[in-house]
Amino acid sequence: MKRLLFDFSQSYRILTRHKFITSILMVQCALCLLIIGNVSGKIFESNKRVEFVKENITGKQYYNFYEGLNDSEYFRLMSDDSIGYQELTDYVQRLLNEEEFTYVSIMSQPVSVIKTDIPEGCLYGYESGDAGNASVTLPDGQKALSAKSYQVSANFFDEFKIELDSGTLFDEADYEYTAGKEIPVILGSAYRDSFSVGDTFKAEYMYQIIPFKVKGILREDTAFSYGEEIEFCDRYIIFPQFDLQPDHPTSFNKMRLLQSAGGFAVAKKSYKEIADIVNSIINETGATGVGLMPSEDAQENDLGQFDAMSGDVSRQFSILLAILSVFVILSISAAVNGFIRESHYEFGVFLLNGAEIWDIAWSVAGVVACVVLTGNLVASLLIVMSSHHNSILYMQVIMLIIVVLSCIAPLFHVARLNISDLIGGKE
Amino acid sequence: MMLVELKNISMNYGKGANTVHALRNVHFRMEKGDFLAVTGKSGSGKSTLLNILGGICKPTKGEYIFGNRNMKELTNNQFSEFRNKKIGFVVQHFALIQDMTAFQNIALPLKYRGCHRDEIKKTVKDLAEKLEISDKITDSPSKLSGGQCQRVAIARAIAGKPELLLADEPTGSLDEETGRKILDIFKKLNHDGMTVLIVTHDLEIASACKRKVFMKDGILKES
Questions:
Q1: In whole angstroms, what is the distance from residue A392 CA to residue A398 CA?
Q2: Is the model's pLDDT at B215 over the cut of 50?
Q3: Between the CA of residue A256 and those of A150, A151, A243, A370, what are the distances in Å?
């Protein structure tokens, strides 16, 4: 141990003798590790999403349903006579009960939350750059913010294996709507800093001010897909698509009914087979303005493409990571080899006085480790400050690889040290 | 009592037509307490002989016996230990580390031996007194004269109490008077029982030694 410490004290001497070069190397190493850390984090995220797609989505067929009542059908439904309400209720109920496929009702519609500090990313229109218009004034004069939300049927959570970070999923009773009762919600992970399980808030939903209560918070990166693209739930409020109320054709229930007619079916059958079943249900119930999306290739989802795309992004990042790592390794190896050449005489003196090649090797490895560890420390601090904590773990692994690989060339050089020229020289 | 024996030692550098025969079938013995001078022209094989005796390189052919041990059996790490414990080196240009103090330079073999700090301190202090460099112990070699540097180098060479002290042109970089003083140190060390081998061109130094050998074209002859 004492000897090892002495060897490392020689590393310190080498470093202080080359202050400028080692400082440059440390800065270069810090910058590269910073990029490597971020890039490796992205690769991990990308791989995680690909895994998600492979595990949960690939292989399933999804068929989308539409609700497209024309103006006259809509006004007749919303009139006091509620024309078509029963037919539409029967239609949705038949879809939900159908055994040939699983019908999942999902609707995205903003809710106006009466709270002014919800995360910006959760505002309605954020992705299209219209989050500035999310602030609304409710009819009673209260200020609110339009937030993105999904209303989902009970089988949504099973279908996509949705898991929570805290709280509990909806139970059966949560799907029964009673006016004035708190509606349970599950929030995306982006809401973590704004709400906790048990918190309540009020929001306007379909022209009514309704109390909401947080029942759970989703895990980060929770996502689902039903064919076209991956939908991440991190910035969404999720609440139940309530049970149908065939005997109470209120305006609120009518609007909810229309929402329930939009969704998708999961099946192992062909488009034509599903279309035949749906047409039969429409004919039998007499519902109008609803049905299966007419696209012939609706069953062809783009997830394979997403998988390939994510894999491609991952590959590109990996190449970038490899290039940066090689760049750092080559720079350090070249500089340290220069130090060894310059210290040849000194190492020779050490060897004459009883040092082993391993003593020299430890001194050289100490130089490499000091440069990389200092760079790593700086990069880690910067990453902690930017809150990408996960990246630090990947960075440590890469850092260790860099230390090991950067030592190879210098140690090879050390192993070939010839000190016979210290005394006289070759004859 | 025999300390060193070289049996039929040859040393070649290079291959084929470019082979250099630095040593040719050298037979050689040194007793404990010997004070030996090796003379000869440049390229005669003196330094190669020193490298082999010091365990820096292995001969191409022949046997090197140190004490009772055949050096052929030693691993690289055992050679390092051999250099640390049995051999002291003094070279023409002192071989001091410039950014270490005289103290640190002298302490080097003791550090590699893993000696305790107090033991190192005492040994270096005693040696500095013996070689009259006590007042220079905290100075770096760049602040010392040639003679003082060589005294530091000798102190380092004998710090580990080696059995054989090898000196390669120890006065080559010094003026005549300083050289004489350094020679006196070697004489005193030998008088105290140390076995000393000096490679030199200087006939005055060679004549001061108890025994002389001469080298020519890799062949060693007793004179």
A1: 10
A2: yes
A3: 12, 9, 9, 64
Q: Are strands A230-232 and A223-225 parallel, antiparallel or unpaired?
A: antiparallel
Can you tell me the distance from the alpha carbon of A365 to that of A7, in angstroms, rounded to the nearest whole number?
10
Q: With CB atoms and an 8 Å threshold, state whether A13 touches B84.
A: no
Chain B touched by A345 (CB under 8 Å): yes
Mean pLDDT of B180-184: 84
- The span from the CA of B50 to the CA of B35, in Å, is 15
Is the CB of residue B52 less than 8 Å from the CB of residue B166?
no
Chain A residues whose CB is inside 8 A of the B45 CB are: 427
- Name which of B85, B79, B105, B156 is nearest A358 in CA terms: B79
Q: Give the list of residues 6+ apart from residue A255 with CB closer than 8 angstroms, or none.
A: A206
B9 φψ region: left (φ > 0), alpha (ψ -120 to 50), beta (else)? beta
Token readout for A214 is 């947080």
Q: Do A424 and B81 touch (CB under 8 A)?
A: no
Between A174 and A41, the higher pLDDT residue: A174
Residue A346 touches chain B, beta carbons under 8 Å: yes
- The single residue listed with the structure tokens 């996509």 is A160
Phi, psi of A164 (to 5 degrees): -105, 155
| B154 Cα to chain A: minimum distance (Å) | 12
- Whether A348 has a pLDDT exceeding 60, the answer reads yes
pTM for the full model?
Answer: 0.59
Mean pLDDT of B38-51: 85
Q: Are the CB atoms for B23 and B10 separated by under 8 Å?
A: yes
Q: Which of A145, A26, A35 is nearest to A391 (CA)?
A: A35
Across the interface, whether the CB atoms of A423 and B50 are under 8 A apart is answered: yes
Query: CA of B149 to nearest chain A CA: how many angstroms apart?
Result: 14
CA distances from A288 to A77, A282, A354 (A): 11, 7, 96
Helices (H), ranges, B114-145: 117-130
Per the prediction, chain B carries an average pLDDT of: 86
| Residue that has been written with the tokens 């299209």 in this structure | A128
pLDDT, position A170: 92
% of chain B exceeding 70 in pLDDT: 100
Count Cβ atoms below 10 Å from residue A102 Cβ, excluding itself: 17
Per-residue pLDDT at A427 exceeds 50: no
ipTM, interface predicted TM-score of the complex? 0.84
List the structure tokens of A313: 């992004």
Mutate to test the interface with A, among B105, B111, B198 (most CBs of A within 10 A): B111
Assigned token pair, A22: 């080692």
